[in-house]
Amino acid sequence: MSQQIDGIRLFLFRTGPRSARRPARNRFFLRLRCGSVCGWSEFAAPPGQRETDIITYTKCFGLLRGKNVSDGFAIARAMVGIWPNPLSESAEMALLDLWGKLTGKSAAQLLVLDGRMPVHGVVQLQERDPDVLAERVRVLAEKGKLPCIKLALSGDIDTDRELVAAVRRYAPQKGTYLIGAPHERYTSRLYSTAEQIGMQLLKLYAAGLDACEDPARLTVSEWILLQQYIGDLSLIAESPLRFARRTIHTVNPDMAKIYNIRPGYTGSVFDAVLLAERIVSGGGHVMVGDDDFIGPACEQWQQIAIALGADWVEAAYKPGISDFYRSVQRGNGILLLNGVYNQLPVAGFGTELDEGRLGSRAACVFDL
């Protein structure tokens, strides 16, 4: 891999808030070029990003210019934990795409992963009115199967039971796996112990919930205790896995039944893969999350989910917001059929874009 990275370009896209609970975030597409071959990736900046942060991003990625791909990986690896997590992760993803295209190998091969089975997507629902929610589920059910739904929960047990029951009106347990996501809202003065939290979660289980992600802010020992207490209801750990280089050494196979590897928070795709392999070897299940991606990261993390043998993947194009991206796509490595992601034979991640049209849609383009 002696070819030098002779071009680096960063595309900025400004998008409005997706909902009251999902504020506006700037998205960036990163393009690394060796001659006529390009590697692509994407990352989402944190809400409230400052203009000075963009200068930081350009300085970070500018370190890759003039380096060959091997040296580029070495720089990205050295910067894990120093650069913001999305940047080091995104640099590795673009380098994997580039490396694969230069060598004719898929990203999965380069990551030494052999998963090939299609992976189901996750339908995410945030409606707070039970009747509105039930109608949304009915419409979705009429369009096809709903193998997995992720439902935003409030942390109020009575409200959440109504929401779970509303989903189950048109999505019975036999055909739909239902995940609740309270975002640690069951941490309060009312639920101060794992047993007290568990009592509330069992009420949701009785209403039809199959799994609960990050129910509360817990220590490792509390996670273990809670999973033992709730029995057949599966816990999903996401926040305890953030910054994979560290959590490789702290994750416990008894904390949960399912572990959500969330892009944008791993710091490194290589460390994320090692973390997932450690979880699976301990008997756990893995799913792949999302970081409000709108473009190339969607199909790239779908491919990683397939390669890992994940149960589900959340990263997906966003209706309306991602329409411009689909219009500039020339190729990708995923075929979506009936809500199931299938891997296509590609080099790297297979991301190919019309760069001219992409640049015309960007708020700003930075050449580094």
Layout of strands and helices, then pairs:
Layout: E1 7-14, E2 26-34, E3 37-44, H1 51-62, H2 69-78, H3 85-103, H4 107-110, E4 119-121, E5 123-125, H5 130-143, E6 148-152, H6 157-168, E7 177-181, H7 194-207, E8 211-213, H8 220-230, E9 234-237, H9 244-247, E10 258-261, H10 269-281, E11 285-288, H11 296-308, E12 312-313, H12 323-328, E13 329-331, E14 334-337, E15 340-343, E16 352-353, H13 355-361, E17 364-367
Parallel strand pairs: 4-12, 5-6, 6-7, 7-8, 8-9, 9-10, 10-11
Antiparallel strand pairs: 1-2, 1-17, 2-3, 4-15, 13-16, 14-15
End-to-end Cα distance: 21 Å
Mean pLDDT: 94
Count of discrete alpha- or pi-helical segments spanning 4 or more residues: 13
Kindly estimate the percentage of residues that lie in beta strands according to DSSP: 15-25%
Using only C-alpha atoms, the radius of gyration works out to: 21 Å
Order of helices and strands: EEEHHHHEEHEHEHEHEHEHEHEHEEEEHE
Helix content: 25-40%
Number of strands: 17
Walk across the major sheet and give the strand order. Answer: 5-6-7-8-9-10-11
Largest sheet: 7 strands, parallel
Oligomer: single chain
What structural category do the secondary elements indicate? alpha/beta
Low-confidence stretches: none
Large-scale geometry: globular
